[in-house]
Write a structure and sequence with these properties.
21% strand; 7-stranded mixed β-sheet; 3-stranded antiparallel β-sheet; 2 domains; BirA Bifunctional Protein, domain 2; 10 strands; rod-shaped; 339 residues; alpha+beta; 12 helices; binds 3,4-dihydroxyphenylalanine
């Protein structure tokens, strides 16, 4: 009997399980009403008195081992289920995080800032509600100048001197008034014009103005800067400068970038020419420098201005400018992951 009890003790100590059913079967087998221990206790009655003590102790040791084993496995099962209760199924894939996306205007603006900052341009800003001087007069557009009609202006009704800026060129003026050359700055911002809203034009849009003033700045510097810029932004280095007119620059030009005619979209976008107009530019008119307190005999410079919305439409093949201000989540979500 002693040998049999020792075997049971070994069995109990070696027992392991992870399921509650197996554990219950173990309990019934050893500790149940018709279990091994009950049997042993009743067998004990029949043994002779001199054996009783040793056998009794052995059976007690078996019972203790079985009790301990049961408790030990129960504890470990419970602690596992509390871990699960706390953290759920740790192998389950996580819930997706809903991150927002940058607006296409911001994406293009940041790209432009980054490209120009690499060649030493800083970023400057000015007010959207402007006065006549900064938006027009200082830029060589005195009162009654016909070129004022190039840009349909929103005036503040009670004061004809105050308006919503029609271009970011106003920031040039403010920057030159407050800083002496050398100047290398770009000024992104929103501008307003009293135009009918359609797929191609809106009453507000965004521009980036560029200004470079120093000694001996030439048209060649302007062209090289623009070439660097278009290569970086569009991956296209072929540009052409068409003579144009802006009151604040002399000479003035419009910049076209050669987009190519490889696909049907290229044809459509460039109206079959392969060329896309992307900005206006020129050498800052000496009058403008003088208006802003810069000696035009000592300094010269160039300026340029481009529309961010237009570039965003081009780069992302967006067909309607109004989508940029409609805040349609389905549209905006497509720009996830872009900086
Ligand atoms: N201000 C012009 C516009 O809104 C764009 C422009 C053209 C800006 C030539 C310039 C420039 O600085 O030199 O249409």
């Amino acid at each position: 009997m002693q040998d049999q009890i020792n075997k049971y003790i070994d069995e109990v100590k070696g027992f392991a399980t992870e399921t509650a059913d197996e554990l219950e079967a173990f309990r019934i087998k050893f500790l149940g009403k018709k279990g091994i221990l009950r049997g042993l206790y009743s067998d004990l009655k029949e043994v002779s008195a001199d054996q009783k003590r040793d056998l009794g102790q052995a059976i007690n040791a078996l019972r203790q081992a079985a009790d301990e084993k049961l408790q030990e496995i129960k504890d470990s099962m419970e602690s596992q289920s509390t871990v699960q209760g706390q953290f759920g199924d740790l192998s389950r894939p996580g819930n997706p995080l809903h991150v927002g996306s940058r607006h296409p205007i911001s994406i293009v603006k940041n790209r432009i800032i980054e490209i120009f900052s690499r060649i030493g341009f800083n970023v400057s800003e000015g007010p959207e509600i402007e006065d006549d001087w900064h938006n027009f007069t200082a830029l060589n557009l005195p009162e009654y100048h016909p070129a004022r009609d190039m840009q349909d202006t929103f005036f503040i009704q009670t004061d004809p001197d105050i308006l919503l800026r029609t271009h970011t060129s106003s920031v040039q003026v403010r920057y030159m008034e407050n800083n002496q050359p050398p100047i290398r700055t770009i000024s992104p911002g929103r501008v307003y014009r009293n135009e009918a809203i359609s797929a191609r034009s809106h009453c507000f849009f965004h521009q980036v103005e560029g200004l470079y003033i120093d000694k001996d700045v030439s048209f060649a510097d302007l062209k090289q800067t623009l070439q660097y810029f278009t290569t970086e932004l569009f991956g296209k280095s072929k540009i052409r400068l068409r003579p144009s007119y802006f009151p604040f620059t002399e000479p003035s030009a419009e910049v076209d970038v050669y987009w190519g005619l490889e696909t049907e979209t290229d044809y459509r976008m460039t109206k079959g020419t392969g060329w896309l107009e992307i900005m206006g530019c020129g050498m800052v008119d000496p009058n403008v420098l003088e208006n802003c307190g810069i000696d035009s005999k000592e300094y010269s410079g160039f300026a340029f201005g481009m529309g961010i919305d237009r570039i965003a439409l081009l780069l992302h093949q967006i067909s309607d400018i109004r989508m940029l201000s409609e805040n349609d989540i389905r549209f905006l979500q497509q720009f996830k992951g872009s900086l």
